[in-house]
Design goal:
seven-stranded mixed β-sheet; four-stranded parallel β-sheet; 18 helices; alpha/beta; 15 strands; about 450 residues; single chain; amino-acid biosynthesis; about 40% helix
Length: about 450
């Protein structure tokens, strides 16, 4: 029997776009640890989260039991402007590598924001509008989340205030201008516009900022301005829920051709893309229906999984947010300024952290020059200019494919290509000019961050 020819692009039809998000927590045997009140160290109740997040998003954040949650019709309608996104067969990359491995990637860069972030931005803006709010505040690092949220807010008629990590604000002016085009107010963080920003600047003069700093500022503005709530682009349970459309579509596309991946790879910063891509596959693995090797890939300069501590920690530098149990480098950890590859958050999603602690997935860290080498190789073979964040997954996928070349195994590899790199040309320029360097924090560097992790009974690490 002749093997069915797999197309370069596997497209689903519009009526095959998921109409429900999949909540992986419902199938997890060990649920992610609850968020804690930083003052009492007691699990947070819905009413304590209500001043920060939208009401329905609070319910999604705390729901560990409902497996499928309906996607509101208004969100489904907007999804149709860029979904379903294609699942691609990397024939040219396979040929160039000379590998017997079969490589697939789920491409989420086919919208103006250039990434998967729009999947959750639309949901969070929708719930804010439904609640009758005036606007939302957020942080952004590389700028993809800020861009996506500004688009969603423009669509739903909401005010959008973005605190952008200062080093990215300066290095990525065009990403900043896209946000402003969609109506967002963009402030470099840390800034003098908030009390916590002033405090961070006083303690760290000249700092290039971090996502932890920007989160603190965004939360302060949301909680001190009537009619505003804070929204986050990664890490939170609700975000991983919304991003499950990535994995649901990828699995549906592969199922059409009877393809089952052996290895699933995603870049890991806070966890939104990785969590979304692996959701239905991990569900199968937990239920004992199928086994997959799942790999999280993070930067060696911000190695939360591979060198962090699994403990309750603050999600923000200003220590005003709830405590989350996650793999963390400490909320005061700020990546080296030469770190150009994105994925700058000091901690990891509580869902992914629990899965990693339970041995259901593995993690690896890669250095940024090798990441950009893989990005360039991918661009030259597959024709897509990848975002640096996604290129961490590309690096690992190439490495796994080369292992198959050595062993002769015909493994099937799926990875997430979550965004395009058109606004990351300063980083590409540094790579091409030979001025990009690798930075791996020493144990002493990491110890400074670990020292800031709160100490209390039950939080030993």
């Amino acid at each position: 029997m002749t093997e069915q020819k797999i197309p370069y692009k596997i497209y689903l039809s519009e009526d095959e776009i998921p109409t429900q998000w999949y909540n992986l927590r419902a199938d997890m045997i060990n649920k992610p640890a609850p968020l804690l009140n930083p003052g009492t160290h007691e699990p947070l109740k819905a009413e304590e989260l209500a001043p920060i997040f939208c009401e329905e998003l609070v319910q999604q954040e705390l729901d560990d039991t409902t497996a499928y949650i309906d996607i509101p019709e208004e969100i489904q309608e907007y999804y149709k402007t860029y979904r379903p996104s294609p699942t691609m067969r990397a024939y040219h990359l396979e040929k160039a590598l000379g590998t017997p491995a079969k490589i697939y990637y789920k491409f989420e860069g086919n919208n103006t924001s250039g990434s998967h972030k729009l999947n959750s931005a639309l949901a969070q803006a929708y719930y804010a509008k439904k609640q009758g709010l005036k606007g939302v505040t957020t942080e952004t690092g590389a700028g993809q989340w800020g861009t996506a949220l500004s688009m969603a807010c423009a669509y739903f008629g909401l005010d959008c205030k973005v605190f952008m990590v200062k080093v990215s604000y300066e290095q990525k002016p065009f990403r900043r201008e896209v946000m402003r085009t969609y109506g967002a107010d963009v402030t470099p963080s840390p800034s003098e516009t908030t009390e916590v920003g002033k405090k961070i600047l006083a303690e760290h003069p000249g700092t290039t900022g971090s996502l932890g700093c920007a989160i603190s500022e965004a939360v302060e503005v949301a909680t001190t301005h009537e009619g505003y709530r804070y929204v986050l682009g990664s890490v939170l349970n609700q975000v991983l829920l919304h991003q499950s459309v990535i994995g649901l579509e990828a699995k549906a596309a592969l199922d059409k051709y009877g393809v089952t991946p052996d290895i699933i790879i995603g870049c890991a910063g806070g966890g939104s893309n990785l969590g979304g891509l692996i959701a239905p596959f991990m569900g199968q693995k937990i239920r004992g229906e199928q086994d997959y090797r799942i790999i999280a890939v993070e930067p060696a300069s911000c190695p939360s999984f591979t060198r962090g501590k699994f403990a309750y920690d603050f999600c923000d530098t200003g220590m005003i947010c709830p405590l989350a149990k996650m793999y963390t480098l400490g909320s005061g950890f700020i990546p080296s300024p030469n770190h150009a590859g994105g994925l700058r958050f000091h901690g990891m999603s509580t869902v992914l952290s629990q899965l990693y602690a339970d041995g259901l997935m593995e993690a690896t860290s890669v250095e940024q020059t090798s990441v950009f080498e893989a990005a360039e190789y991918f661009a030259r073979t597959e024709g897509i200019l990848p975002a640096p964040e996604s290129s961490h997954a590309i690096r690992a996928a190439i490495d796994e494919a080369l292992k198959c070349k050595e062993t002769g195994e015909e493994k099937t590899i799926l990875f997430g290509l979550t965004g395009t790199g058109y606004f990351d040309m300063v980083a590409y320029e540094n790579y091409h000019n030979g001025t990009m360097t690798d930075y791996i924090p020493t144990d002493e560097d990491l110890a400074q961050g670990f020292a800031g992790i709160p100490q209390f009974p039950g939080n030993e690490f």
